[in-house]
Amino acid sequence: MGDTPIQGEKRVFMTGNEVVAWAALAAKADIMYGYPITPQNEIMHYWTRMAPKYGKRFLQTEDELSAGFTTVGGVLAGRKAFTATAGPGNTLMQEPMSMAEMMRIPTVLVVQQRGGPSTATVIYSQQEVTMTTYGGNGEGLRIVYSTSTHQELFDYTIKAFNTAWKYRFPTFILADGYQAKMRESLTLYNPEDRGIKLIDPEPLLGKEPVNGEKKPTHLRNTYNTEEELYEVITKYMDEYLKVAPEIMEYEEGNVDDADIIVVSHGVVTRAARGAVQELRNAGLKVGYFRPITLRPFPGEQLKKAVVNAKTMLIVESAYGQLAKLVKDAIYGTTINLEYLFKPGVGITAEEIVAKCKELLK
Amino acid sequence: MSVEPQMPKSWNRETKPHKFCPGCGHGLVLKALGEAIDELGIQDKVVFGCDIGCSLLAWDFFNVDTVQTHHGRTTPVVTGIKRANPDVICIAYMGDGGGYAIGSQHLVNAAARNERITAILVNNTNYAMTGGQMAPTTLPGQKTETSPYGRDVQLMGYPTQGPEMVAAITREGAYVARGTVANLRQLKKYLKKALENQMAGNGFSFVEALSTCPTNWRTNAKETWAFLENEMPKYFKVGEIKVPGQKEAGQDG
Ligand SMILES: Cc1ncc(C[n+]2csc(CCOP(=O)(O)OP(=O)(O)O)c2C)c(N)n1
Ligand code: SF4
């Protein structure tokens, strides 16, 4: 039973769900709690095949409420615990994740978005943005990474455990059905070989007595008065806003002289990059901006990126969920906004090229 | 001369007197539990989970590690803790609404999986904290805020027989009993056995405690006690229902 599942760097060709399972192993996750839902099932399938070889555990629960709450329990016990879900499962997970938010429990949840609302499709969409960023009853004190390639799925799943345990906010990997199911090449690595220090988990409950003495911990998420709650949330919000700039990530290309900036996230960014390349080849001034963290949202960076542009084109496989985050972030900017919304279906580079050419006419 | 009230060692003295209404059975169940914890000497190893409902008032009741969670979700939280750290002794403490209505799927599945935890469910025949609505355990004909003319069993069915259900779906290793705050010595014995059963790694342990809610029952001391002792046991039979190692009727070993 080896401690390091990945020896050296390894070029592989695998599905996104398999990548997540490998990444969780590489991040030294201890236990997964899960409930089947397409398109994330294979994360559990791979985890249950590999995990026992490394002394890792799994529990298949009765539903997503339970998977979320057992994950909360696993983290309270001091383990790197995680779960994965999609669509209606994500809806159910909002209850445990709001507890994690309130009690600063570093849960990790991988969401492989599918179409919605309700059962809808089992395939692909970007329609879980609003729910994943702000879905609970609360203020959305969480961290959401939106990945666009399998390499990122690996990198950011590892990172998610570190982010969660460092800042003590629930952390989400927001991927999608395409990433879950398609095969792509990437490099697996042992994070410690690349100088990435993995944060050690520690128990919040069930700690051993120190010098024979035990000081009990009392955790609650119920408060008696509005003022008491106000104080707690204000403190958490201050802490969140303070660390947000350290957490925010984004990617941009060809923004400096661009007339149009294409804004997208996740796999749609692959189409955006391709479109920008093609338009540049044709001598047209188009650039792109992509928030990697959807929460906290890199608003100032986006404002800076679009400062010289005339138009921002927001492209997403949803009806304006990213656009809502963007509009909130750039409030006060007078840039012209245009949209390409395709809820529940993929978007090609050709479509973005055509839309940009129309706008440049 | 003043005499210090007798308190279990595992109680958190700083939070006493406790926050339950006068005459509430929760305090008595928690007293029996506190004594059981003391007698087993496990205070430093216990993780106590409590639900939403009046049980949440116990979030700082004991000098043991505690987590208060959502309505009906105490069982999975405690299951998650136990699965991640089997060395701690996990107690899930909830009401009848939390355990038999909103959280019933968790109770059923934890029992079916034989989770090595101890679940304690306080049956006061109503949703107390929200102001006395009908619960799965409300007796036929009993008036509550949402059954103002009395529970009509034609419309709402009969009271949930929790321990009987848990006994039916668990196999070898489970411990199931129903106690009452009218007999604290016996209740403590059941709670102790339920904890010992977990400590021995046998399987799921479940104790329902018949309890009082004078506030929502709108009863005085005498009527409260009469309801607890005379009315409730008509539907809820007090006693041990399943004990590991004992051959039970209707089970094929
Ligand atoms: C998801 C959810 N639904 C409803 C409530 C409101 N609620 C709070 S306490 C409670 C009833 C609790 O009754 P029970 O579990 O029987 O415990 P008791 O108060 O009687 O001890 C309800 C419905 C809630 N907090 N969360
Ligand atoms: S409302 Fe009922 S159950 Fe709740 S504390 Fe008061 S008496 Fe006890």
What can you tell me about this protein's structure?
- The complex is a heterodimer of chains A (361) and B (253).
- By secondary structure, chain A is of the alpha/beta class.
- Chain A folds into 2 domains: 186 residues, Rossmann fold (3-Layer(aba) Sandwich), CATH 3.40.50; 111 residues, Rossmann fold, CATH 3.40.50.920.
- In chain A, the strands form 3 sheets. Chain A has a 7-stranded mixed beta sheet, sandwiched between helices. Chain A has a 5-stranded mixed beta sheet with strand order 10-12-11-14-15, sandwiched between helices. Chain A has a two-stranded antiparallel sheet with strand order 1-8.
- In chain A, β2, α2 and β3 form a beta-alpha-beta unit.
- The model of chain A has no long low-confidence stretch (mean pLDDT 97).
- Chain B is an alpha/beta fold and 253 residues long.
- Chain B has one domain: Rossmann fold (3-Layer(aba) Sandwich).
- Chain B is built from 9 helices and 9 strands.
- A 7-stranded mixed beta sheet of chain B has the order 2-1-3-4-8-7-9, sandwiched between helices. A two-stranded antiparallel ribbon of chain B has the order 5-6.
- In chain B, β7, α7 and β8 form a beta-alpha-beta unit.
- The relative contact order of chain B is 0.15.
- The C terminus of chain B is likely disordered.
- Chains A and B meet through α3, α4 and β9 of A and β2, α2 and α4 of B.
- The site of thiamine diphosphate (TPP) has 17 residues of chain B, from α3 and β5.
- Chain B: This is Thiamine pyrophosphate domain-containing TPP-binding protein.
- Chain B: InterPro entries: 2-oxoacid:Fd_oxidoreductase, THDP-binding, TPP_enzyme_TPP-bd.
- Chain B: Keywords: Oxidoreductase.
Main attributes?
heterodimer, A: 361 residues, alpha/beta, seven-stranded mixed β-sheet, 12 helices, 20% strand, B: 253 residues, Rossmann fold, two-stranded antiparallel ribbon, globular, disordered C terminus, binds thiamine diphosphate, binds iron/sulfur cluster
